[in-house]
What we know:
By secondary structure, the chain is an alpha/beta fold. The chain has helices at about 25-30, 55-70, 105, 110-115, 135-145, 170-185, 195-205, 335-345, 350-365, 370-385, 390-410, 415-430, 435-445, 450-465, 470-474, and strands spanning about 5-15, 45-50, 75-80, 90-95, 110, 125-130, 155-160, 190, 210-215, 225.
Amino acid sequence: MSEPVRGCVLLLDGTPDRSRGAVPNPTAHALAGADPRRFLATPSVDVVQLPGISGPQSVLAYLQHAAAGPGPLLVWVTGRLMVPSRRAKELHLGLSGSTPGSVRYTGLPWAWLTRTLRAHPGPLVVLADIEADTAAWPEVAAAASGGQLADGVPLFGVVTPAPATPFREAGPYTSAFLDVLRAGDPGGGPVLDVAAVHRQALDLAAPGERTLTLQYGPVGPLLANPAAAPAPVTAPAPMPVSTPVPLAVPAREPAPAPARVPEQPVRDREPARDPGRVRAPEPARDAEPVHGPDSVRATEPVRATGSVRASGPPRTANPVPAAPAPAAAVPARDDLLPGILAAARAGRHNEAAAMAAAWEQQALRTYGPDSPEAGLWTEVRADLARLAGDHGRAAGLWMSAARARLARGGPADGEALAAVKRAHYCWQHSGGQAPGLATDLLALWEQVPGGRDAAEDVRTRLRALREAPPAAAR
């Protein structure tokens, strides 16, 4: 029997020590503590963690070994992209001790990574949550827009400008991606779509304007779906027991027709048992189908009380095909809200948002994008964003919910007006995001009765924000 194909998760951290001192990269630390063996949809997974490794040749050896296997391969890259301070501006992933002056010798050329992984024969994805310093940013932006950063390798993630002070928490994209992985897709199969998880993570992380988002290439079956329903275990079909056929013995001479003898019951004509052989179990006589307590037994066969005339093989009733299992429906929102709100109130906002987003996707597939069921989950996500303090995102979600309610019920729908009011409240607390949201909010107030005063309030606040100094606007 062939052994199952083993998967591999390679965690590569390219954070130069000099930029962080003794503090490890919190993003890489979060990945290592998230049980990476559960990431892949395969029973056997090897995890290789390379924190603070020095020397590009050592990293290349690990990459070549991981790419040689046929199983699914996930390479998660964290750290910093750099370019040499002199000569060629080739992108490098900084390693231990890398500086702009030494990265040409101490860093890993990014082209080595893509060229090595391109030879992998099985499912592959590279997830990146990396930063780029000021000198490398133009090269990174050009490579990302032209596709050279992926160079034929499935690549998903973000590139952010290097901060002046190292972050003390994991990157928002990685945190959101891990939360979406933990929540899974309750209505999906055993494998998650990497592109869908990537989009949900971006939706939760809400990256800034200068963040470069990476999404290149299709990905095969790779990420495990922890929320998928287990496959039904069906009992194997019973093997048919063939009736032994006696060997035909030619008659020596034609025998006269015997006198008619009354037929004996079947139980009196059992074949003789051979004590030297193990006989297959015989099917039970007069067997009845198993009925549930509420089953109707009107079609139960009548059993004969006298002798049975064996004029041929016994007839078997045609089996009744089992009714197909009904499609899984989305549980009621009120049944799921307590657990989601408990996570939000405990401070696990990304986890709560990921759970709500997963159930929203299930409602979209089950009921459609314009259904009230899907709209309710949009409102849940809006309230979760408000609880997390992201008022700009909450305002945008409430406006989406209001537009959906107006499309279904028109301006007379009181719930649509309530959604616009909630969007207005969150917009008032959205700070620097308010100007970008004002146009949509004004359009909504113009569609509901009594919205003139509220629309004027939006215009007044918008003028105040535009006339205020930059510091006050923030």
